[in-house]
Records
---
Amino acid sequence: MKILNIQQIREADQYTIENEPIKSIDLMERASYELFTWITERFNNDFSVYVLAGSGNNGGDGLVVARLLSESDYKVQVILPLGKNGSDDFEENLKRLKKINTVLILEELPEQISEKSIIIDAIFGSGLSRPIEGRLADLIKKVNNFEANKIAIDMPSGLFADKASPSEIIFKADYTLSFQVPKLAFMMAENQEYIGEFEILDIKLDKEYINNCLSDYSIYEVDSVIKNRLKLKSIAHKGNRGRATIIAGGYARMGAAILAARACLHSGIGLISVQTCPHCIDIVQNQIPEALILTDENEYVLGSYLDYSKQDVIVFGPAIGFAHKTLVLLENLLKDYQGQLILDADAITLLAENRELLNLLPEGTILTPHHGEFKRLVGKYSNNFEAIMQLKSFCMHHKVVVVLKGKFSAVCNADGKISFNPTGNAGMAKGGSGDLLCGILAAIYPRIKNSYETAKLAVYLHGLSGDISKEEKGENFMTPSIMIEKLQSAFKKIEN
Ligand SMILES: NC(=O)C1=CN([C@@H]2O[C@H](COP(=O)(O)OP(=O)(O)OC[C@H]3O[C@@H](n4cnc5c(N)ncnc54)[C@H](O)[C@@H]3O)[C@@H](O)[C@H]2O)[C@H](O)CC1
Ligand SMILES: [K+]
C-alpha cells in the first residue's frame, strides 16, 4: 500500500473533486460516513460522544460525524475550541448540525467524563502547520489524561504527517482513522503512542490518480508473483532448493547459529551447512542432525575461509564476536565469495569499526541491523525521519539492501525505495529473534533471487510467525524457538 505525502493527498483530493466530479462538501460527507460506519460497528449508542472540532476541514469531518451519530441516537456533544468561523465546508456543516438541534455545543470540555465515552479528535488533520500552543495545548493535555476511548480523525492533532513532530503536545489516540492512504508519520516508532492502531478508510479518491503518484514509501503486501517463486517445482531435489551456510557464534555461543539454521531449514532450504569450531561440532549435530558441518580450524572463534563455492547464500555475523581472525574472514568473504551475503549483528559492528570494508560490499548484499547497529554505521540520529533519510543514502551509496529492524521494520532497496513491514509485535524483542530472520532470508533467497524482494518477504514471514506465536502463546511466553515452529502456519497463511 502506497504512502503519500500531504501535498499528493491534497492533489488527489482536488483531482477527485474536479473529475469525478463531486462537490467538496459531498466528499466530506462521504469520508465522514466511513468514519461513522467504523465507529458504530465498534461502539453502541450507550457510549457518550464528545467531538473536539477545529475550524478547518478536519473540524468539518468532526461535525458531520457528530450529526450522523446523533441521528443514530448517540448522545453527542461538540466543543469548538477554535470558534465558529472556519472553512466553507466547516461552516456549512455547523449550520446543518444546528438544524438537527439534538447536539449540544459546549463551551468547555467537562472536568470529568465517564469511561464509557468516546472522544473524537477533529481539531487538526493534514492542515497542521505549526506546533499546538496556548489554550489548545492545555485542552490536548487535559483529554490525554481522560480514560475514554479516543479516536483521531485522519491524524492525531499535533502530529505532522511528513516530518518529525517537534512538540509532544499531540492527541493520544487509541485509534487513528485516516483517509485513503497511510502517512509516513504512522511508520515511526516515536509516534506510536499518539497514533494507537491506525485504519485506512477508503473514501474513494480517484484510484488511477493515486496509482500514478510516485512515492518511495509503501507498506508491504505479499506479492503473488514473488510468493509463487517459493513453490517447489515437482522436480525439486535438495541441490536445486538452495544451499546455505551459517557462519555465526563461536565457542559457547553456538545458539545463534543453531536458531538461524533451524529457521532456514523450516523455511525450505535444500541443504544447510553450519561452520563450527571443533569443540562445537557435537552440539550442532545434536541440535540439527540435518546440518552439514564445515569445520573451522580455530578452536574458539570462527575465522577459516573454507570452500563456499557451492553455497548460494551465506549468513555471517550473529554472535560471531570481534576477533581479528573473524574480521579477516569477513574481509575475504567480501572480496571473494560469489554468492549472496547476508550480514547481521557483529558483522555490522565490524563493518562500522573497519570502514574501509564498506567499499567492498558486493552489490545487493543484505544487511539486517537494529537501530543501535545502524547508528554505528551512519552516526547518530534523533528521530526516525532522520533514520529513514540515512537509510536511503546508505543503501543508494553502497548499492545494498538494508533491513532496519524495529516496529514497522524498514526494508530499503539500493534505489532508495523503502517498504515498511506491517507484521510483528513487541513479544519478538528477545535474543535470538534476529537469528531467525537471517535463517529465513537465507532459505528463500535461492528461490526468489532478488535481494529486495527476499528481504521484504522474509521480514513479513518473520513478523507473521511472531504474530501467530503471540496469538497462541502470549507476548511474554513466546520465544524464538516457538516462532520457528509457527513458521509452518506463517507459510501456510501466505500460501492461501
Ligand atoms: N484528504 C482528503 O481527501 C480529505 C480531507 N478531508 C479532511 O480535511 C482535512 C484537512 O483540512 P484543512 O482544512 O486543510 O486542514 P485542518 O483542518 O487540519 O486545519 C487547518 C487550519 O488550522 C490552522 N492551523 C494549522 N496548524 C495550527 C496550529 N498549530 N494552531 C492553530 N491553528 C493551526 C491552519 O492555518 C488552517 O486554518 C483532512 O485532515 C481531512 O480530515 C475532507 O474532509 C475529506 C477529503
Ligand atoms: K484530528
---
Amino acid sequence: MNFLSQTIAAKPEPDWAALLALPIAESHDPLVPLGLVNSPLRSYPAYFHQGVPNALSECYVRRCVLFRLYKAARLLPSGIELVVLDGWRPLLVQQYLFDSLFAAMNAHYANDSESELLNRTRRFIAPPSNEPTAPSPHLTGGSVDVALCDVEGLFLDMGTEFDDISPWSYSAAFEAVEKPSAREAEVIENRRLLHSVMIQAGFTNLPSEWWHFDYGNQSWAWSSKSSEAQLGAIELQPLRQRWRRQVAL
Ligand SMILES: C[C@@H](N)C(=O)N[C@H](C)C(=O)O
Ligand SMILES: [Zn+2]
C-alpha cells in the first residue's frame, strides 16, 4: 500500500452540538508565527493578500501544530511543499468571513429559514465565537488551511480553489468519479497526498473542505474520538498589554 496515496473516505458532517460540548483542558501551548519557516513548509497568509479586513500579515499557529506541520511537510515527495494559507484567526476575521457567506446564502436561498441558512454556511465557515467553552476552531490556533505547491511556488491542482463553496470542495468528492479524466486523476492524487501526510502527522480533516485540518481543538477531539480537547480560544498578546502585565510584576 502507498502510504502517501490513501483513499479519502466520505464522512458525515460532525454533530456540531456534541462537538462543541467536548471539554477543553487548555495546554497553554503558545502561538508562534510562521514567517521564518523553512522548505518544505511555506506560509502564504491568504486572507491578508485578499485584503480581508483585520486579516494578519503573518500566519500564527500553536507551537505543537507547527511541529506537526513540519512532520507532514517532510513526508511529502521531494519537489512538493506544504503551504499554510491560514492558521489562528482573530474573531473579527471569522465574523467577516461568516457574515459574507451568510449574506450570499441569504440572497440566493431567500426562502430558507435562518437555521437552514446557518447549516449551509457552517459547512464552509464556522460561526464566529470566542466563548471559552465553544470557540470557533481557527480562534484556537489548532486549525490550519493548507495546500500543496511545487518548488516554483505554483499551487498543485486540487480540483477547486481554496474556499470554493461548491460540492467539489468536499475532501472525498473526486473519489466518487467513476471514470476520472487525466486531470481528475491528478486531482485525486494531489488530494490524497495532502490528506495522507496531514493525517499521518496527527491532524484530522473537515469533510467539507479539502484544505481544512485540525489538531488539539474540539473539532480534532470529535474526529479523533478523544474525550477532551487541549486547545481553546487564545489571543495574540499585543506589546502594550505585555508591558502592562510586566510592569505590574
Ligand atoms: C473559511 C474556511 N477557510 C474555513 O476555515 N472554514 C472552517 C469551517 C472554519 O471557519 O473553521
Ligand atoms: Zn480552516
---
Amino acid sequence: MTNSLRWKRILLKLSGEALMGSQAFGIDPAIVQRIAKEIADAVALGAQVGVVVGGGNIFRGVAVAAKGGNRVTGDHMGMLATIMNSLTLADALRRLKVNARVLSAVSVPSICETFSQRVADRYMEDGDVIVFAGGTGNPFFTTDSGAALRAAEMKCDAFLKGTQVDGVYSEDPKVNPNAERYDTLGYDEIITRNLKVMDTTAIALARDNSIPVIVFSIHSPGALVSVLQETGTYTVVGD
Ligand SMILES: Nc1ncnc2c1ncn2[C@@H]1O[C@H](COP(=O)(O)OP(=O)(O)OP(=O)(O)O)[C@@H](O)[C@H]1O
Ligand SMILES: O=c1ccn([C@@H]2O[C@H](COP(=O)(O)O)[C@@H](O)[C@H]2O)c(=O)[nH]1
C-alpha cells in the first residue's frame, strides 16, 4: 500500500480554527477525533506524519496587540495555545492506538518533550506521529512558518496545509465566492499576487527547500488520504 502514496513523509499543517467546529472559540473534541482518524488512516497506509496545529482557535498575538496588549506576550500566548491544541490531538491519536508524541519548540518539560531534529527524525522513522508544538518558538512568526521550517528540517516530501478551503483561489473564496480555484500554482505567484492563504515566510521556506505545498480542505471527510493518493480537490504549489 505504501507505494500508492504520492508523498510518504509529510508535514501536515492544520488550522487551529478548524478545531473549533461550529464554536466561536476553543476545541470541539468530536472534530479533533475526526481529524485524528484521518491521520491514523494515512499512517495505516505507510505515511510518516509530522503535524503542526495552529492556535487561532485560542489566541493570536496580533489580536492581543490590537486590543492594546503587548505583541510579544500575545505571541507567547499564541505559542502556548498551539501546545494545548497539540496535546489534545496527540491524545486523540493515542485513543486510536497511534503512537503520537508532542515535541515543542518552547520547553515545558513536565508536559511534553522539547523539539530536537535528531530525535524527531528517529520517531518518524519508527512510524510515530510527531505533533510539533510551539511554532518556531519565537514571536513575530506563525505556525505556517513553523510548519515549513519543520518540513525542511525533517526532509518531508510535501507540506500539506489542511485548511478551511479546498485550495488556493484568485482571492479569498470566503470573501468572493466567485474566485477562481487553481489546481497548480508557482510559489512566486502566491508571493507576487499576495494570495493570503499562507504567509510569505512559509512559502519562501518551502520554495527554497523545493518542498511542494498542497492546500486542501480538512473539512472534507477522507481528504488527507485522498490527497496522498492524488484524488480529490486541492492545489499543488511548486516551481
Ligand atoms: N487566495 C486565497 N486562497 C485560498 N484561501 C485564502 C486566500 N486568501 C485568503 N484565504 C483564507 O486563508 C485561510 C487559510 O488560513 P487558515 O485558516 O488555515 O489560517 P491559519 O492562520 O493558517 O490557521 P489558524 O486558524 O490556526 O490561525 C482560508 O480559510 C481562506 O479563507
Ligand atoms: O512561531 C510562532 C508561531 C505562532 N506564534 C503565535 O501563535 C499564534 C497562533 O499561531 P497561528 O499560526 O496564527 O495559528 C500566532 O498568531 C502567534 O501569535 C508565534 O508567535 N510564533
---
Amino acid sequence: MSDASYRDAIFSTPLDRVARFSFDEQVVACFPDMIRRSVPGYGQILGMLGLIARRHLRHGARVYDLGCSLGAGGLSLAGQLPPEAFRYVGVDLSPAMVTRARETLDTECPDHAIQVMEGDIRTLDYEPAGMIVLNFTLQFLPPADREAVMGRLFAALEPGGVLVLSEKIRAEDEEENAWLVERYHDFKRANGYSDMEISQKRTALENVLVPDTLAEHHARLGRSGFSRAHTWFQLLNFASLVAFKDEAFKDADPSAPRED
Ligand SMILES: Nc1ncnc2c1ncn2[C@@H]1O[C@H](C[S@+](CC[C@H]([NH3+])C(=O)[O-])CC(=O)[O-])[C@@H](O)[C@H]1O
Ligand SMILES: O=C(O)C(=O)Cc1ccccc1
C-alpha cells in the first residue's frame, strides 16, 4: 500500500444516503488530514504525551496506544523519548489502519521497541502497562461497553501507572453544548470544510461517535478504581484527562523518568 496521504474530501459531494462512518480504506487514505482539520487540539495533545510519560512512566514500561489509528501516539513518544524508555504497543480494530501504522512506525522509529496489533480493545488480553493512551477511541465504543473496558485497563495498569483519555465531549447544559457545537462547526469551516461536508459527516457519526460529559468520564474513572483524575486540556467540545493508579500522582519525580 502507498504511504501517500490525501486531503479529506469524503463528504464533499452530496450523497443520497450517508453511510455510517467507518475506519475503512477511504478514511485511512486521508486520515492525517481529516483528524488534524477535525479535532481541535489534536497536535497539542499528542505533543504532551512525551511530557506526561517523562513525569509518570516507569522507565522501560509498556505503553498501550488503544485505537492507535496510524500510530501518531507512537511517533510522538518515539520523537521525545529514547528507545530504552518504553515499549510501544499500538492496537486498532481496523486492518487498514494497522497495516499503515506498522509501515510508518517501522520506517520512522526503527530503534524503538514498537508493536502494532489488530485487535478489539474490549476483548484484548492486556499485559501489565505503565501508561495507557486512549486518544479519541473510547467515544467510538458502544456506551454500554465503556465501563467494562475501563475496568480492564485499570487492572492492566501497574501501580503508579497513568491513563491518558482524550475525547469529544458533550456539555451537560444544553445551551452551553449548542454553543460549543456551533463554534466547533466554525472551527471546521475555518479549516476548509463546507457546510455540506460538516452536515453529512455529522449524520455519518450519529450513533457511531457518542460523546459523554466530563462528569460521566470522571465518575466512570472513579468507579473503575482510579484514585485521581484531572481534566488537563479542553478546547471547545474536545478534552483530555489523565487518571492515576495509586501512587503515580504523589510519586512523580519532576526531574527524570521514574525508575522503580
Ligand atoms: N473496539 C475497538 N478496538 C480497537 N480500536 C478501535 C475500536 N473501535 C474503534 N477503534 C479505532 O479507534 C480509532 C479512533 S481514531 C483514534 C486516533 C488516534 N488515537 C490518534 O491519536 O491518531 C479517532 C478519530 O478518528 O476521531 C480508529 O482507528 C478505530 O479503528
Ligand atoms: O469530524 C468530526 O465531526 C469529529 O467529531 C471528529 C472526528 C475526526 C475523525 C474521525 C471521526 C470524527
